Description:
The protein is globular and about 45 Å long. It is mainly beta. The protein is about 10% helix and about 30% strand. Strands 1, 2, 3, 4, 5, 6, 7, 8 and 9 form a 9-stranded antiparallel β-sheet that branches. The chain has a single domain (about 10-180), classed as Roll (3-methyladenine DNA Glycosylase, Chain A), CATH 3.10.300. It is built from 3 helices and 9 strands. The structure holds a DNA duplex.
Amino acid sequence: MPPETSLPGAFYVRPTLDVARDLLGRILCRRLPGGSTLRGRIVEVEAYDGPEDRASHACRGRTARTRPMFERGGIAYVYQIYGVHFCLNVVTGGEGYPAAVLLRATESPRKDGSASGPGRLTRVFGIDRSFDGASFLGDELWIETGEPVADAEVKRTARIGVDYAGEWAERDFRFVITSHPALSGPRSLR
DNA sequence: GGTGCGATTGCA
DNA sequence: GCAATCGCACCA
Length: 190
């Protein structure tokens, strides 16, 4: 079982932008098949908020792929991109409202818990489609409270790779720990 | 049943 | 700058 310091279910059942902001500094944890646990501090995330968000997969409605996004917060939404990489999202909010936070980068004093970019992150943590719908309150995957991150250390920017989303592409739904070396994306968004 | 493309990455 | 590589959304 995850430790007492694991974030409770109620943490995830809140507005997506709040959860995204509050996930910075938290510790993504994954118990590996061998029994050891991989840990990485979350330093970059993006929010995908509701059925109107043209950058969100859920803007097309409830489909086989996006079903987890419509569930109650606290589970994973994992999809494959470009037929090559997986992306790990934390589903947020109440049941019926499609929203999630994409985990884009982690850092760790241990090299094996560091990853810059959503595709690299899932590779490092051994996350694939088998984790789609998995709970963040279980004993294989969870997030620990970590250390708080002050507002002065947080920067908001536009999301990466969603130029097709019109005005939604310009919204500052990406949250990063300012100038952190592990951030992905263009330098202009650090 | 056919088609087009993507919340990315690594290599030329 | 562009190929890799495939699930899936959408149209017929």
